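Any chance you could type out some protein's one-letter sequence along with its backbone structure tokens so I can compare the two?
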Amino acid sequence: MKNNQKLLTSFLVAASLIAFQGCGPSQAEKEEAAKAEKPAEAPVLETVTVQKQQLSSNLQIPGELIPFQQVDLYAKVSSFVKKLHVDVGSEVKQGQLLASMEAPELTAQLTTSESRLKSQEAIYEASKANYERLLETSKTPGTVSQNDLDLALAKQRSDLAQLDAARSASREIADTRNYLEIRAPFSGVITARNVSAGAYVGPTGKGSEFPLFTLVEQRKLRLVVSVPEAYTSYLKSNSAVQFKVRSLPNQNFTAKVTRLSGALDARLRSQRTEMDVINSDRKLLPGMITEVTIPLSADATSLAVPKSAVLNSTQGTFIIKVNNGTAVWVPVKTGTSSDELTEVFGEISEGDVIIKSANEEIRNNSAVKI
């Protein structure tokens, strides 16, 4: 009897457990279904207002320092190097003698031309005196015929022309002989010397492959920068820029825009811009590569938004404007950027409310809460 009661009790407990397990999942499913039937709530997002601001940032591009003036000096006439008065690193003044050349044939030609000039001067003096005497004598009627007087005058003029030609030939040889002295066309530093005393040089031939000297003006340099097309409007004449060089990383240098090419390079799509750099202490060297900082300042009437509000997607660049609780993707173009803000252009106005942190999860025309 007792065994039967125990079996009945166990059976009742097992049935109760089975019944409990059977109704449990059904209740959970009902709760999930009830939740699914409820409409999804719109996400709550942080917004900002579009405002007009003036942005300031910098553009860093490479530049190059080149000499303000640089020239390779060659020999004008065939000659031999007699003496070199300067060497690499010599600082010279304008007009200073750099090298003396010698060409014996020019000396002989000059002596011959001077002798010919003196001879022609004597011939002209004789014909001039003869004409003057005949002219004075012709004042007495019947003493000198007009034909003789005309012949004497023609002879005087012919000798004068010959004298002028002799002077010109002598001057030409003297000027050519002056080319035997190589002088500095401007003040600067000798950066290269390619000959030694006794070398043969000339306008053509083996001795003319390289220049005698290379002269560079070092106390004034040109800073050359190729400014990309998108930033050409930020640089004008007398605009100030700063630059650095690798050899002096802790020192900033300043230069002003002096020359603008006024056209874009067809290959680089950039404008050549030059700044004059005064280098009195000669800290900077021609050929140095610089890092130029160009200030970029947007117009005070530009519309600026946080950088996080600009959405760059595969479809383009957008900002998400909130219009009556609806997210609207507005196509824009970006301009100047600062540390936190970006200049934007598009169908937006001052005072528009936009999503501060835009992302593609916020779909176009979807409902949002702000």
Q: What stands out?
A: Confidence is low (pLDDT under 50) at residues 17-24, 34-39. Helices lie at 2-37, 104-137, 146-178. The radius of gyration is 47 Å. The first helix runs from residue 2 to 37.
